[in-house]
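If you are new to this repository, start here. Below is one unmodified record pulled from the training split, so you can see the exact layout before writing a loader.
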Amino acid sequence: MSTVVQTKVAVPGATEVYPHRGCVTRRCRNERHGHRSGVVWLTGLSGAGKSTIASAVEAELFEAGWLITVLDGDTLRAGLNSDLDFSAAAREENLRRAGEVALLLAEAGYVVLATFISPHQAGREAVRRVVGDDFHLVHVRARLEDCIARDPKGLYRRALAGAIPNFTGIGQAYEEPPDADLILDTSGADVETCRHTLAGFIRERFAL
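And here is the target side for that same chain:
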């Protein structure tokens, strides 16, 4: 078994931080599971279909033997990020934490389907820097009027009534990514078509 060397890193407010690096490498895990690991970041308006598509792809690839999981924005906000509001600074911190969690899961061998509105290009680029290699940006695109019509959580109704300030698409603009690796247009394609497209994309990009 190889010797593990711990390297000190600089952390604000701390003097002795040595992240643990085990003997089982990411490459070993990838070879064991038969595919590369990494992060597929799904961005788009609320109601565009990010979580629905991600869950369908997760089920398909899990049944095919893949190590895969969904990292959902609302799930993180209900737990790890429950201390954050929706101010600009808190949104930035929300994505920073999400990126770090996604990276940990990728290092553990998972293909991570991360579903976050992540409305700003700067925030998405920050996550890309955290994750590094094997980060793929998918824009789940839908017309705002279609998202309002779907409104599965009733959020648009509340936002239009003024109950949710700065809600993306209503009180805050969504910046469409100019550099998406894949675009899934849910205003023009159904969930099954998008599932098939995304699953194929993952099989190609994460093949060993």
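Two things worth knowing about this chain: The helical segments are 26-33, 50-63, 73-78, 88-107, 121-131, 144-150, 155-160, 191-205. The mean pLDDT is 92.
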